[in-house]
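Technical note accompanying the year-one report. For the benefit of new consortium partners, we illustrate the data format agreed upon in the data management plan: each record pairs a sequence with a structure-token string. No post-processing was applied to the example shown here.
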Amino acid sequence: MSVIPIPRQTNSVPDAENQLSPTLRLAAGGTLLAGAVLLLANKRKAGLVLTAAGTALTLLHEKETTLRWWAALPVVMNSAQRIIGKAQTAMDELDAHRQKLRGLVRR
């Protein structure tokens, strides 16, 4: 009896998706890197196109993560909207105080 159970490895043939995975990762990384270099060289349109393509390739590769993020997006948007609402309320109160102080100073 062993202390640590070691699972048996099966001799299965890798499926096509796993074989495509390194190629897709390499293409996504290369595209993102090329886009970043173009952005640094002030080639904005080409850089944005390549980084968008690299992002799309990454999203295709990471399907499960993309689906989790997509499901979490409404919660994040509601939180952001709540924070923006609080900031707007604070700015309105600050503006009211500023107007009040300005009225006192002008007298």
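Partners are asked to follow this layout when depositing records. Helices lie at 16-40, 44-61, 63-106.
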